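In practice, a research group might receive sequence data for several interacting partners and want a quick structural hypothesis before committing to experiments. The following worked case mirrors that situation: the sequences arrive first, and a predicted assembly follows.
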Amino acid sequence: MTNEQSIDYPTKRLTDQMTRMTIPIGPQHPALKEPISFLLTVEGERIVESVLRLGYVHRGIERICQNRNYVQNVHVVERICGICSHIHTTTYCQGIEALTGLEVPLRALYLRTLLCELERIHSHLLWLGVLAEDIGFTTIFMYAWRDREIVLDIMEELSGGRVAHAVNVIGGVRIDVDQEQVHSILARLDELERQIETLLGVIQHERTFQVRTRGVGHLSAEQVRRYCVVGPTARASGVDVDLRRDAPYAAYDRLDFQVMTADEGDVWARTLVRVQETIESLHMCRQLLTGLPQGVLTVRAPRRVPPGEVVSRGEAPRGELVYYVRSDGSDRPARVKIRTPTLTTLITLPDQLRGVHTADVPAVLAGVDLCIACADR
Amino acid sequence: MTDPLSALFTLLIFPGFGFLFVCALAVQWIDRRVAARLQGRIGPPWFQPLADFIKLMAKEDMLPIGAHEWACATLPLVSLAAVLTAALYIPVGGRAASAFEGDLIVVLFLLSIPALAYFLAGWLSVSVFSIIGGNRSLLQYFAYEVPFLMALSGPAILSGSWSISRIAAQQSQTAWMVLVQPLGFLLALVGLIGKLKRSPFDIPKAKSEIGAGPLTEFSGRKLALWHLTLHMQMVVGIFLLVNLFLGGCGNWPSGLAVFIFGIKALLILLILSVASVLYARLRIDQLANLGWRVLAPLALAQILVIIWIGIR
Amino acid sequence: MFMEVILQALRETFPAETIEAQPVPISETFVALSPDCIHRAAQVLVERFDLRHLSTITGQDTGSEIELLYHFWDGGGLTLRTSLPREEPHIATLTDLIPGAAFYEREVSEMLGVTFDGHPDPRPLLLPNDWDKEQLPMKNDQ
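A structural hypothesis for the assembly, expressed as tokens:
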């Protein structure tokens, strides 16, 4: 089953003495970690237009959710994405808990938030490596992913899984930490912070890095608002939105943190925002671990959810994640609608790619932190 | 060189194909190991380059429809032949297979053939990525070749001879060229990085942008030969720099001379390896800018300084 | 976000409709409108209140009708709810006011068969090119 009409491969048309070529980026391409297709029309070394095609990993999650009960759906939504699995289950469970009127214990909320922030650190470090590799800076890729191992080890100790944690249940969490673990994790977070500060220093002072990322993939604040972009991509263009501060969920109302923004709106600004966010997340993890309250971990959840609707929001590493759930009183949801943040940035890509060098295409694609599995569901 | 047996030995064993093949593998291994350690990794075992070569030779060899079959099969062989011929004139440990006045020019000419063949390989294997890679490699060639040639002419002008063997031998009487013209040495290094298409100038084969550049559609034996050519070019380039700037092997007795030569080659190799991990990849227009606006004027300045020294 | 002010503005714009705020968890307000009012309501939100962030458009088949939910967000959530008939559902597009709505409308269109009049690029978003257009994955009688 082919997803493109047959392409003249390569297509050359002589227009104004310049040759136009069609370059396919994807579905399989070294710059892409997940399948997505761009057909770039290139004149010389500059992109003239691009056509985007999604859906290569569409699994019909929303329809699947209608055929499973609420408990099974916790596991289904966890598998929408590998890197932001925990925020999906958090947002989903939050919604169901609101529908059933459950009061989640504070200790559980703290642990949920801890894993949300650890996941954010993990996601941003992974992204930094991918961006560095795409601009040819393999050394930063190796360093960032080596530091990411620290976070993955912590998450594995806490939950048993490096990327799929299965920590959330409806009504609380299923993991716990003792004092010894808390001390060990805090020590490792200190080490991680030193490494990330070094990385930040390199990024801020290394000229070849800046030369490849400054001015590339520019989005103005106006474009961000027109396309309803969310997450670090929006914050890097000066639009100050962050659900953790604007609509606190889990334990965020008890944490003291800053929202990082930048003004340049290019890949460089997005890099700065994400690395600074990683450091902020580290501080938040410390607050959560040192201030962990005593208490139970979960409250009993009923099998059937009373009829009603809920709109639940969370701040994934890539931005605002929205869940809409409608319940008809049975043990299966009547509708689960998921809107992932990557979808908002994908719509800006044709704009961002116009007029860009072919060599900058991987930097632009990496700069928006694509998570196609999330976007396609 | 009248004795056919000794000629065969020189051509095939030392310092000919056999020696260069072993050096190419060794250079690859050291380079990957050093780069790995700098990146916090361990790096491959010593037999990895040999294993890669054998594996590639055994793989299926195919080209896309529309590619020029005969040309794509001949181009790697032509490049390999050019590099090996160039190696004949470069003394290793004091003796070159052949030498004559003006062999520096011949060597530089022969070393340009792989660049042209690389571009043609991209162009004739009709894939979008390889065509773009080929275009970039040609642009890159013009950006680095001029400063490279000018930097390498410096030692020739100063020592009054255009034979590599003579330039190398003279440095044991006077002084190493790197001390007299450090800027020239630096430019020669930068030019060599561009010629070898190593990071930060690995633009034609930018993995994340255009697959593998001109060699995207090559596989199996052809690809093995291409990789061999590129690594032998690295060996020959390093040896050339050692002879022109670091005094060849000096006045040491025969066995020790090869050893000393090896140490100097290792030094240059280390510089190249460290440089490859320190920077992000440049864009082709940024490289062209760098080549024409910075490197070429500097090389010209260096030449003028040398001529002035020579006059005095 | 001043919910009361917005509701008042909507009541002024649509004197014929009964505008009632239905609070929905978590921090959301649902307002039901008829389909031809949605574009005008969105225009009021965008032009008078600078409320331009459309989180998503949910389409669902409630059995008797196709329901569209337009989720807006500005510190708190405002959702406009509208119902379309199950046969030949169509509604005006919002992409002229909010270009970011393009992808959401395309997805609702391919999943439920809703036509968004005036959409600049009505290609399927997630389904393959050779998917049978009559097969609507989110419609309940399939």
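Before designing any experiment, note the following. Residues 110 and 133 of chain C are 8 Å apart (CA to CA). The helical segments of chain C are 3-13, 38-49, 102-112.
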